[in-house]
Design goal:
Structural class: mainly beta
Number of helices: 6
Shape: globular
Strand content: 35-45%
CATH architecture: 6 Propeller
Largest sheet: 6 strands, mixed
Number of strands: 27
Helix content: 10-25%
Distance between the termini: 32 Å
Number of domains: 1
CATH superfamily: TolB, C-terminal domain
CATH class: Mainly Beta
């Protein structure tokens, strides 16, 4: 079953991940919420336990989509990037437009590192060219600006403000991890880079930002704090994760490592857990992934019920009745809704072993192995 879902996140975790912040939660004293995550749990989450409004979107196959890197939602449209092209779909999955501007000329990018949508403007981040490019929905470049640092990710836009995550590179123009762009101009920086960690931790994460209403959450691996910006304001700690004795101590980061591989060789000798690898939230729930003993665990914190549970697998009791999926094979993209890309060949195989739900049977049975991915779409319960 390992090949069925996109598991790039799991694969790069085996090699290493960029750290973001030197202080770990067991040694921090922020006046913020603490969420406990039991990494030893092997519980199974049923989809219908926390989620509702289940949909299945079958993307058209007349345009080839590569590996899905990022999904965003806005203006009643679904935006998908495969790293080279950007596709815009309606809520029903109808292709509205797509463009591919790969190159090194004006208005072009070598790849889409990330992107954000603000009204009718799509801003593409190209890390390799150190450039931000604004396009309209016809794919026409309306503006472009160079940046003096190696940004990795860009947040959704709130109140004409968005944030850039710059990883752990340390240099003349790279002293902070997060920068705010407000009304098109950089006006603030947050979270200083730890110079010792900058020597050895250099791998990017799949996700670093999430938007819920007017809040932008920032998170990253090897930092047990999740940060929040409200209405485009500065980033401040929102909550931290207590792994109940398995948090990485600050002293571990203070050791000398020759490179990232050396760091992970030593790390895998321990029983430490780390996060936060992915994140989503609504007014009631926080949901995030963490890594423990070569496995990805999914934690859901219910603020209303004041209960937190950690899961090792997901039981699909909605789309394919009875299908069990390890959380490492359940990569979600969250932007207002939760999107889980499903490879077409996985759908074809699963329908031979599990009975599709009646409401999704027509789309599932019409799927061919060579089709574009399908999207599972659902929302948190209120």
């Amino acid at each position: 079953m390992t090949d069925f879902y996109k598991v790039k996140l799991f694969l790069f975790l085996a090699c290493g991940i960029t750290t973001f912040y030197s202080c770990q939660q067991s040694e921090q004293h922020f006046p913020v919420l603490k969420i406990e995550a039991d990494m030893t749990s092997n519980a199974e989450l049923e989809l219908s336990e926390y989620f509702e409004n289940f949909r299945l979107i079958k993307l058209p196959s007349d345009t080839v989509i590569g590996e899905i890197k990022r999904i965003r939602y806005g203006n009643g449209r679904i935006y998908i990037s495969d790293g080279n092209a950007l596709f815009v779909f309606s809520d029903a999955g109808e292709l509205l437009t797509c463009f591919n501007k790969t190159g090194k000329g004006p208005g072009e990018y070598t790849n889409i590192s990330d992107f954000t949508v603000n009204g009718e403007t799509i801003t593409v981040l190209c890390r390799s060219l150190r450039k931000l490019i604004d396009y309209n929905h016809s794919g026409e470049c309306v503006s472009s600006r160079d940046i003096a640092y190696w940004a990795r990710a860009v947040s959704p836009t709130v109140e004409q403000s968005y944030f850039l995550y710059c990883g752990n590179e340390y240099g003349e123009n790279e002293r902070h991890k997060v920068r705010r762009i407000k009304n098109g101009h950089e006006d603030a920086t947050y979270l200083p880079i730890d110079r010792n960690q900058a020597k050895y931790l250099h791998i990017s994460s799949e996700h670093n930002f999430y938007r819920h209403k007017e809040c932008i959450y920032f998170f990253e691996a090897f930092n047990d704090t999740v940060y929040k910006s409200v209405d485009g304001s500065g980033i401040k700690p929102s909550f931290y994760v207590d792994y109940k004795g398995y948090n990485v101590p600050k002293s571990f980061y203070e050791e000398e490592y020759t490179d990232v591989m050396n760091f992970f060789q030593e790390f895998h000798k321990t029983s430490y857990a780390y996060g936060v690898l992915n994140f989503a939230a609504n007014d009631r729930f926080f949901m995030f992934n963490s890594f423990y003993q070569k496995n990805i665990k999914l934690t859901v914190a219910d603020q209303k019920g004041q209960a937190t549970n950690t899961y090792a697998s997901v039981k699909d009791n909605v789309y394919f009745n009875g299908l069990t999926i390890p959380t490492a094979e359940f990569p979600f993209h969250a932007d207002k809704h939760i999107f889980v890309p499903l490879e077409a060949y996985a759908v074809v195989e699963w329908r031979n072993t599990h009975i599709p739900a009646e409401q999704f049977k027509e789309k599932i049975n019409a799927t061919k192995e060579e089709d574009n991915p399908l999207l599972l779409v659902f929302d948190f319960k209120q």
